[in-house]
Amino acid sequence: MKRLILALSSVILAITVNYAYAANRIAVSINPPFVQANMGDKITYTGTITNNSDKAANNIIAYISLANITQGKESPMDLEDWSANKAIKIDAIPPHGTYEGKWPMRLIDSGSYVVYITVVDKNSNIPVSSEMSHLDIKRILRLNPNNVLPVAIGEPLLIGIVFMFIAIKRGNRVN
């Protein structure tokens, strides 16, 4: 029984040390930590990936994620409409070096969100994520009904009058 407990303790210690090494080997931060903006605005997030080890970090993929935390609408978001730059492949980060990635984003929907950057090292089984950047997007109505209504009513009316005028002119020629 003592051997079983010793073996299980050794396995748990090895897993913990491996996780601590992987988590400390690469660090990720996101900037800005908090954003308040309006729908339609364009912002850029900057992620700094730091290699804290004495060996170069190779084959790294960094990507940005967005989650809606608005009450009643909690869900991860698909970045297809928000950002064209989803993942960045980094060939190598030198020992104790950093890499700075940029993710431009167009704000398309109002609400409360969190944004974070995740780094996947192909040589490790543990992804590393940054802290969350809070993003509050205010709804802006850019549609002016006073300018749209005259066009929506006036254009079909004008086209109808032109067709009636043409029909009347053609009718006068036939007689």
Keywords for this entry:
Immunoglobulin-like, 175 residues, three-stranded antiparallel β-sheet, 2 helices, alpha+beta, single chain, seven-stranded mixed β-sheet
Counted up, domains total 1
> Distance N terminus to C terminus?
114 Å
Structural class: alpha+beta
Average pLDDT across residues? Answer: 85
Number of strands: 10
Query: Roughly what fraction of the amino acids lie in strands?
Result: 35-45%
Q: What is the CATH H-level superfamily?
A: Immunoglobulins
Main pleated-sheet profile: 7 strands, mixed
CATH topology: Immunoglobulin-like
Name of the top-level CATH class: Mainly Beta
Instruction: Give the H and E element order.
Output: HEEEEEEEEEEH
Principal-axes geometry comes out as elongated
Q: Which regions are unreliable across 5 or more consecutive residues at pLDDT < 50?
A: 19-23
Helical percentage? 25-40%
The count of helical stretches stands at 2
CA-atom Rg in angstroms: 29 Å
Report the CATH architecture: Sandwich
Question: Would you write up a description of this structure?
Answer:
The chain is α+β, with helices and mostly antiparallel strands and 175 residues long. The protein is built from two helices and ten strands, in the order H-E-E-E-E-E-E-E-E-E-E-H. The strands form two sheets. Strands 2, 4, 5, 6, 8, 9 and 10 form a seven-stranded mixed sheet that branches. The chain has a three-stranded antiparallel sheet with strand order 1-3-7. A hairpin with a 6-residue loop joins strand 4 and strand 5 (75-76). It is elongated. The N and C termini lie far apart (114 Å). Mean pLDDT is 85; it is low at 19-23.
